[in-house]
């Protein structure tokens, strides 16, 4: 044995808790462990630096600048105003509207988009001709950038030459013609339609993958016990898809909280703020009106909402899933 | 076994009803899927065909094929500098991002998967929490930070933050994969005189090629479609990526619908081509986290 490996040391470390009593360490083992520590540090350092500087530090910077009135120019902010930016945000109609619109999009996603994706996944899970093609097709929009999607749908939903109005006109539904994105009453619906076009395939793929993880025998056993296909779905498939559904809901919510690209391209938040989201408001104040302090406060609120949501979701909804995952991992090690 | 045969026999007992029902079911199944397929494909076809029309044709003849076909919209884009420039920028930024995030994550994941040290789980949790940070939250402070360092209008002002935000998912996927490689292999390598660095470089990485491909594809797609960060970092149109270019082109020719459609379609081509090639890695990567919990 020319080079003592860390593998010799590790089982011993793992079987006792780090704070537990130390077994006598031979000098060579100490040397090994020191060398292991050097490797660990060197290998972790790039990731830690990158993550610390560009993910964690920005959050801290936002928290710091959010308590100042600052136009972002000339050195560090100096005009400390406490929590005024936050009280301003929660007193502002536009920002409160952002929260309400975000909630609407989340509810619509959970009630319409995800069930649709689930239904399609169940359909495509059956034997049918062209199944692979449909799967490929439905997922394709997810690969396109939000900007491309946005510009394409701006053309489709444009009042005069847009395809949507042309189709309605051609089938004699002229009364339903609308200027979709330029009309406060239809803009959110249009936005949700585009979001569905773009994202339902992604959720479908998640559900398909989850469905394939469920053993066929379970459905067959239920069928023998007399369960129809709806009952099989309701009492076998759906409960077993639980973890996948919970992840898919989670991703939907996080996506809605930070929604920017699609809205910016489709409407820039208009008309008269009726499709604005938190991220759009933040962008407007931070980059167009140079009220960096206020925009930072909005960033911090977004961060707070996602963090509280993520922790609560982890604690109350995902817990059984991850518990299983963690215990099985422990068992394996 | 007997139960299964009984089950099959009962269902065969009423063949007529079943046959008609399954025919009905197949039909309705196909109808639903075809309607949805149309919902997905019509906008894409509208773009593709619309690009071959001129704007007058788009309003007089919205549904038919173009007559005459106007290839000028496409050829003009293809012979213009900005499109190729943006293609190059997007490719360069995506590849650099993938290279950095996968390299850095592989090293970290190696340590997380195969070494025991104090604080390992805490550190790993720190990275997984990063998975929940919306990118939009960090964009303003990132801008301030990068402006201070002087990375505005510099591709690394986009590449490095993208790599940093890609770390959580890459580390999670790679760590899971590295854990599946049997310990005996490492022991054998060690006996043969391999250092842990050598094991990482010469054995682990080559074995992890499928996982590395998956996370690279994820990083490339995320970078390719990123709009928010390039939007605030690049002021110089020479650095425009494809999403930025599409948006600028739209702003420039907003009344010339057909020309914009041609630009949009040509901008889709690289992404769709990449999807066709890397579909398995992309879908495998996206579903890995969601199904395994």
From TrEMBL, chain A:
Family: Belongs to the binding-protein-dependent transport system permease family.
Entries under PROSITE patterns matching the protein: ABC_TM1
Main location: membrane
Residue ranges constituting the ABC transmembrane type-1 domain according to the UniProt record: 99-313
Residue stretches spanning the membrane: 37-64, 103-124, 136-157, 187-209, 249-272, 292-313
Upper lineage: Bacteria, Bacillati, Actinomycetota, Actinomycetes, Streptosporangiales
Assigned keywords, A-Z: Cell membrane, Membrane, Transmembrane, Transmembrane helix, Transport
InterPro entries named among the record's database cross-references: ABC_transporter_permease (IPR051393), MetI-like (IPR000515), MetI-like_sf (IPR035906)
Cellular compartments annotated: Cell membrane
Organism: Sphaerisporangium corydalis
Name of the protein this chain belongs to: Carbohydrate ABC transporter permease
Topology of this chain in the membrane: Multi-pass membrane protein
Automatic annotation (TrEMBL), chain B:
Keywords, ordered alphabetically: Cell membrane, Membrane, Transmembrane, Transmembrane helix, Transport
Its membrane topology: Multi-pass membrane protein
UniProt cross-references to Gene3D superfamilies, sorted A to Z: MetI-like (1.10.3720.10)
Pfam families attached to this UniProt entry: BPD_transp_1 (PF00528)
CDD domains referenced in this protein's UniProt entry, alphabetically: TM_PBP2 (cd06261)
InterPro entries: MetI-like, MetI-like_sf
UniProt subcellular location: Cell membrane
TM region positions: 28-52, 92-112, 124-146, 158-178, 211-234, 260-278
Domain ABC transmembrane type-1: residue ranges: 87-278
Family listed: Belongs to the binding-protein-dependent transport system permease family.
Protein name from the UniProt record: Carbohydrate ABC transporter permease
